[in-house]
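Box S2. Input/output pair 1.
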Amino acid sequence: MSPRPAARPGGRSARVQQSVHTAVRELQTERGRAALTVPLVAARAGVTPSTIYRRWGDLQELLADVAVERLRPETPPADRGSLRADLEHWAVDFLEEMSSGVGRSYIRDALAGDPDGSNAGQCSAYAVEQVEVILARAAERGEHAPDTEIVMDHVVAPMMYRILFRPGLLDAQYARDLVATVFYRLMPLPQSSAPGRAPGDNPVPHQAG
């Protein structure tokens, strides 16, 4: 499923979206998610309930739209000077944000109001964009880098699975161990490297279970 376009609407449509999204976030903070209704959100946003129904269909679709927007990264990944440092820093931040109570709530809302998979596709596209920035930096430095899909499948996907289905201990070391797996087990070695191990590599750290 192709992700929905990331571009935000303009003009009056953008103003309506911003006011309604702001109303949802404020009311969630003040009253809790369970207390939200379309008329309540409409009154806070200064629009009619019919405006919300026309644009979003129902409350769940609105909450999903808010969640997808809130899951959009606000800044590019930090540049720590090397591919390994960049990936580790990004993975730790990603895990911390997504596994937080707020992050889990946004993920649940985004997926619950997602009958055609477009929300999931857009959230995945956000992560792909961030990973590709990191890999492009590495290429500019002349570093050997993995394919984007390797990072998505072996760093992002395991974290999301654990967040959604095995919400136990998820700490920074777990994220770093996933990155280590990409480096030590899955990346093709440069032609100049010795067989079996890149120069300076160490055994893979134990992954958090």
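Box S3. Input/output pair 2.
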Amino acid sequence: MAAAVRGRRRRPLAGAALGAAATLAAALLPLAGVPGGGAAESGAGPAGARAGERAGAGRSLRVGVEAYGPHPRQRVTVRWQPRREPRGGLVILHGGYWSYDTDWGGWARTFARRGYAVFELDYRLTPDAPWPAQRDDVVAGLRWVRRHAAGYAVDPARIAVLGSSAGGQLAVAAAVHGAGAERAAGVVALSPVALPYRAWRDGGAPGATAAGRRLRASAERLAGCVPDGTAAVSEDRACRRAWRSLDPRRAASGRDDAPMLLLHAAADWVPSYHSEAVAAAERARGMPARDVRVRVVPGGGHGMKLLLEPGTVAEVETWLRGRIG
């Protein structure tokens, strides 16, 4: 793991909840029940109901927690229905400013009932370690999922990633790191903070929202240092390297990267230009336009709440079916 980068550090953020849950509209796909407790991001982590969960209509979900590394945060919660035929696997990366958990258990159950084996992947947070520990954990977790895919009747060539907000940034980072297409058949990112340095700048601009200012401080903790405002980001070489390594455009390689569906709300406080910049870099390096799609949906939801907008779940699932079945 890379050593912590030098620089002034901010105080840790509070692990506050982001919002209350809402129910899924009936006009969406028949998702075998409304996600319980996971319809909006909250401060609770996936440590809630990990055992003995039951799906609707008498179909049971098996649940297990496994370690993919030695750190206590390097854990994956698996929800699946027993079957013989190989299927697709879906890896979920929670948001939370890279500093705390958010609860995706309800949506994990929902996607598991739709036939996927679902892997909720925890990763080291900024209080544990600075970047690139978070990306390294996602890469290691995906390696673990592929290695153990047969035990969950998953085709290792049919594994996709669904990330939200900070987790969306990690999903994009995994898509472009090295040969991302070899570890994931596709990535769906909801409100990804794909450009942390741009978020840092925006959070310091006049009129920045409270969420934007909070994201600025979180990005500083992620990088492990504070930029000094120079054109080169920082005169400190280690700090400069850290921030530049957070920019997926520098790693974009076109066809070697995993296909991406990148979604934002029209009034999202993480604007769509984060994803549009990534898409432009991928297309410039040869990725077909159909493999890197940016969608702006109505409303002002962020991250997980995008799944509550009419038609969004249907679009996400259609995209997933086209890549992992």
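Caption for Box S3: Confidence is low (pLDDT under 50) at residues 1-58. The beta strands are 62-67, 75-80, 87-93, 117-121, 154-164, 186-190, 260-265, 292-297.
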